[in-house]
Design brief:
Length: about 850
């Protein structure tokens, strides 16, 4: 277990603000420094994560000895400054600037979606004249429809350019700009195309007025009518605010903040969320939701009461001898659910078969991923604070596509100079490469050898750089502390068995100042590892540890036996396909619905007599199921999740599940009670308390302490009340296990000639949940196969050609040439391509591309034109 640490503070200097002396960090942006100490300075164009533009002129302050006011956003803290933030001259200038900004602004607050959350609305009352002195006609723009999910009202724009700078700097896509001249300038996109980056929805939050708003939320509700819940989603590491009413989810935003006693969107938020979290989380409103328990009788589904369904499930599990039942838990399961499943499987059903690692296509890949998670001790928080001098990313193919929230932390640290970035990968994109100090492309079979040579060079007495890798070696050797990031997901973890032990050797050679961060897009992988959801792990430690087993047996209320070489999910699926289990419990197993080894999954379900699904939507798996128990979505559930760096996040219940559906932890608790075993928990807080005991948490804290300052669950009437700030614990769920004797694997050559497919699961591609968010459909990536130009030439293909993966995919894909892809490798997204692999196939699939005709284009509906308000 580790604690987060804060880097040393900057040098403090004395500054006088409104006659009061105080200490502020030297060199810090003056506006931000004043905001940090409670002196609120109105501002529009300034944002703490964007470059300074200085165009709104509202953050004016008076500095002693200077004849005119200065804009504080374009100044830094220096010793001896004497500042007046509310002098008569400052207030008069602010009133003038507000009047200027309102000259062309339409008076349409009653129909504007930003009403109640608009900085222009607030400031016009707090800093403006209160009356207009002009009678000229306001400028008007024709309303464009350039983005499927972002609505624009240019008449409301105050030209703060926050959106332009966000796209250029944070999202990394030069897509928005300022067009026109003088009083006719406006914000738009180049080519009138969409704002297509994975973070585009954040321009809605940071827009200080009602210019950019959400189309899915447009005209649906007022913010003060909605209940706010600070929670977390299955799509992102970190907190969000879910806005609900009557059980329906209206929007998902970064955490709200307090302004005049009311919690609203934080236009200065430091947290940016992905489009998958924002728009892809609206699946909870789908009419396809499972609402009642189902039991199969004579081949037909029959609606059942909870008592009947749980009795049937319990009977199916009771019919199993020890070891004949298997429990698979999906990545969006909470810490508490993994804990209950561990106890239900091991202490009650007497089976060692429980695991979460279904995204990996081989037993060796899954085991290596577990080894990496146990060794991880890196921190995204420390990365954000500049605690790592250098960062090396290895095998993190398209982290932007598979785990955009984690990718953003890494890219922003490099962009802002908080770390030096090195890339060692099969594929590199512009998003990361433009900020990298060293870039090396390697074929998959040669990656292990490169890492091993670096490790040997660093471990040598005189630290010799491998020939040809001097820049990368110097990046590692020239920094006493840093972070090594290893991607675990590519091609179902095909490289894990060799690359994981080699990287751990590299960590040993680097020394104590370096930390390790294994990355997977599996939302609660660290929680599964630390809460007993992995076959070789118990809450708090390894299954093989006698003391850990004794403590877990006491917590779960039944003896837990050790098992030699407990099987991971890929092997468990193969055993199920061979008919070795009598019962299979699938808890939130979204990954199986789009698994590339569809044949294997089907055989596993077909050859198991009793298949119990705990899910929120129907899927093809119901064809083989015998019992279906309906669960809840993220804003209807209580519990916690664990970010990939071990940070605990609270999942709060904003509304109850609809129909007869229940929270999953209650389902598991009730099932254990029907089986007559395990501890009985009435509250999820009690489960979390026992988890903390298992972890040996170094400080006492409750589940409620994980909620950030703000609303945990606020009704519209309660939204004006002030919530006491909680002290969030610094405890992280990191075990930092350094396995001994991980071996010295050498180079791994390709098994045969031809193209090898490296694939990921794209976060915006089709899946079991977000495919139910119709709003998210417009953001789906197109099926694409990336090839190196030399490989394309050899195959007689060119950029833009359409091909099919013979025997390996559902639909045609378009060729995209990428010179920053290793030769001999093709790259694609499995869930976008509809990838199909054989039941026994693992590793990097060999593919054959056959040229085909372009698919028929489906007509797209014209966006509905919305009348612009006067």
């Amino acid at each position: 277990m580790t604690f987060s640490t804060i880097p040393a503070a900057s040098e403090l200097v004395t500054v006088t603000v409104d006659g009061v002396g105080m200490q502020l960090p030297k060199g810090k942006n003056l506006l931000q420094a004043l905001l940090d100490v409670g002196h609120y300075i109105p501002h529009y164009c300034y944002h703490p994560r964007l470059t300074v533009d200085g165009n709104c002129r509202l953050c004016l302050i008076e500095i002693e000895g200077r004849p005119k006011p200065e804009i504080s956003c374009n100044m830094v803290v220096t010793d001896g400054l004497k500042i007046n933030t509310a002098s008569e001259m400052v207030e008069d200038c602010r009133q003038g600037m507000m009047e200027f900004l309102l000259v062309n602004h339409p008076l349409d607050c009653p129909v504007c979606d930003r009403g109640g959350e608009c900085m222009l609305q607030r400031y016009s009352m707090e800093y403006g004249w209160g009356t207009a002195r002009t009678s000229d006609e306001r400028r008007r723009f024709q309303k464009p429809q350039f983005d499927p999910l972002i609505d624009i009202e240019r008449n409301r724009c105050i030209m703060c350019t926050r959106c332009v700078r966000f796209c250029d700097e944070v999202a990394g896509e030069h897509v928005m700009g300022v067009f026109g001249h003088g009083s006719r300038n406006y914000i738009g996109t180049y080519g009138d195309g969409p704002v297509s980056n994975p973070f585009s929805g954040n321009v809605i939050d940071i827009c200080p007025v009602g210019c950019l708003t959400s189309k899915p939320f447009r005209f649906k509700a007022r913010s003060w009518e909605l209940q706010q819940t600070t929670t977390t989603t299955r799509a992102c590491n970190g907190p969000v605010t879910a806005w609900t009413r009557g059980g329906d989810l209206y929007r998902v935003t970064p955490p709200a903040h307090q302004y005049h006693g009311q919690y609203t969107i934080n236009e200065d938020t430091l947290i940016f969320i992905s489009n998958e979290a924002r728009f892809g989380s609206l699946y909870g409103n789908s009419e396809e939701r499972l609402a009642t328990p189902l039991v199969r009788h004579d081949g037909e589904w029959i609606e059942a009461s909870w008592d009947e369904a749980l009795n049937s499930a319990a009977q199916a599990l009771k019919s199993c001898e020890p070891g004949q039942s298997c429990f698979l838990a999906g990545e969006r399961s909470t810490n508490e659910e993994f804990y209950l499943l561990s106890g239900l499987a091991r202490a009650v059903c007497k089976t060692p078969h429980i695991d979460w690692r279904m995204r990996f296509t081989s037993e060796e890949a899954a085991r290596a991923a577990g080894l990496a998670l146990g060794a991880g001790d890196g921190s995204l928080e420390r990365l954000d604070q500049g605690a790592y001098g250098a960062t090396l990313m290895i095998c993190a193919q398209d982290l932007l596509g598979s785990a955009p929230d984690i990718a953003l932390h890494l890219k922003e640290a490099a962009r802002n100079g908080r770390t030096k970035l090195g890339l060692l990968d099969v594929r590199v994109d512009d998003w990361f490469s433009q900020w990298a100090e060293a870039i090396f492309l390697e074929q998959p079979g040669q990656m292990v050898g490169t890492v091993e040579r670096l490790a040997r060079g660093l471990a040598a007495e005189n630290r010799q750089a491998p020939e040809g890798y001097e820049t990368l070696f110097n990046l590692l050797n020239g920094n006493e502390g840093g972070l090594v990031v290893l991607g675990l997901d590519a091609a179902g973890g095909a490289l894990n068995p060799t690359i994981v032990p080699t990287v751990l050797n590299l960590m040993s050679a680097l020394g104590e100042g370096w930390q390790f961060l294994p990355v997977t897009a599996a939302r609660n992988a660290k929680g599964a590892f630390g809460c007993g959801g992995q076959s070789d792990r118990l809450p708090g430690g390894a299954l093989a540890d006698e003391k850990i087993r004794a403590a877990a047996s006491d917590l779960h209320g039944g003896p837990i036996e050790s098992t030699d070489q407990p099987a991971a999910a890929p092997e468990l699926l193969r055993r199920a396909a061979n008919g070795e289990f009598r019962a299979l419990v699938l808890h939130r197993c979204d990954e199986l619905t789009t698994h590339p080894q569809r044949e294997l999954v089907e055989q596993a379900l077909k050859n198991t007599p009793n298949v119990i699904l705990i899910d929120i939507f129907p899927s093809w798996m119901m064809e083989y199921a015998t019992i279906v128990l309906p669960g809840s979505v993220f804003y209807q559930n209580n519990g916690s999740m664990t970010d990939i760096d071990g940070t605990l996040q609270r999942m709060s219940q904003g509304s109850r599940p609809g129909g007869k559906a229940q929270e999953e932890w209650r389902i598991l608790q009730s099932l254990a009670a029907k089986l007559g075993g395990g501890r009985h928990y009435r509250r999820v807080e009690d489960i979390f308390r026992d988890l903390c005991l298992a972890w040996g948490a170094p400080q006492a804290f409750r589940l409620g302490d994980l909620v950030l300052e703000g609303p945990s669950t606020l009704t519209p009437q309660e939204n004006r009340s002030v919530i006491t700030k909680r002290r969030r614990p610094s405890f992280k769920l990191n075990f930092a296990e350094q396995p001994a004797g991980v071996g010295e694997p050498g180079d791994v050559a390709h098994e045969d000639e031809g193209l090898k497919l490296v694939w990921i699961h794209h976060s915006q591609g089709p899946d079991h949940l977000s495919s139910r968010s119709s709003e998210f459909d417009a953001l789906r990536p197109q099926p694409k196969i990336e090839l190196h130009p030399k490989d394309a030439e050899a195959a007689g293909l060119d950029h833009g050609d359409w091909v099919v993966l013979e025997g390996g995919a559902d639909s045609p894909s378009q060729v995209s040439l990428n010179p920053y892809l290793a030769e001999g490798v093709a790259y694609g997204a499995a869930n976008v391509l509809g990838l199909r692999m054989g039941a026994d196939e693992a590793g990097l699939p060999s593919i054959t591309l056959k040229k085909t005709d372009a698919p028929a284009q489906q007509a797209q509906p014209t966006p509905e034109e919305v009348q612009t308000a006067p």
